[in-house]
């Protein structure tokens, strides 16, 4: 408080008895004070934020994206298999590529079955198996498609149209 030109000092020691009463009340009162300080320091999230954070991540749009990518990958794979069947006569040794397609279909079916049983979670061992089978598929496909490339093809090239 102050009046014109006169300043009144507040009385010292008003808060000390209150602090002593809290510390004399025992450890429960001290614990409550510590809890209040912790609450002030922590970030208080609204219930909606916590619910969204703890929600199933496959239900937040990731599932739709995964299904769309899987369908698109299936369409691309079907087109490439159709192209392989159409070019079958051009292969000098089509067996490695055919084995690659069989391994690809089997590995895909196995991965889908395991993921469905484990409630949409892909374990680390399955990921390693999928990578290894993908490497085998690529190696077999390259071996089958380039088997006659270094010695030349045993089949004659197709005739050119409009040759002079």
* Fraction in beta strands: under 5%
**What percentage of residues falls in helices of 4 or more residues?**
55-70%
Q: What structural class should be given to the helix and strand makeup?
A: mainly alpha
Taking all Cα atoms into account, the compactness measure Rg is 37 Å
Please report the distance between the alpha carbons of the first and last residues. 113 Å
User: SSE string, helix = H, strand = E?
Assistant: EEHHHHHH
Q: How many beta-strand elements?
A: 2
Describe the strand arrangement of the main beta sheet, using strand numbers: 1-2
Mean pLDDT: 76
Note poorly predicted spans.
Answer: none
Shape: elongated
- Main beta sheet strand tally, sense and closure: 2 strands, antiparallel
Number of helices: 6
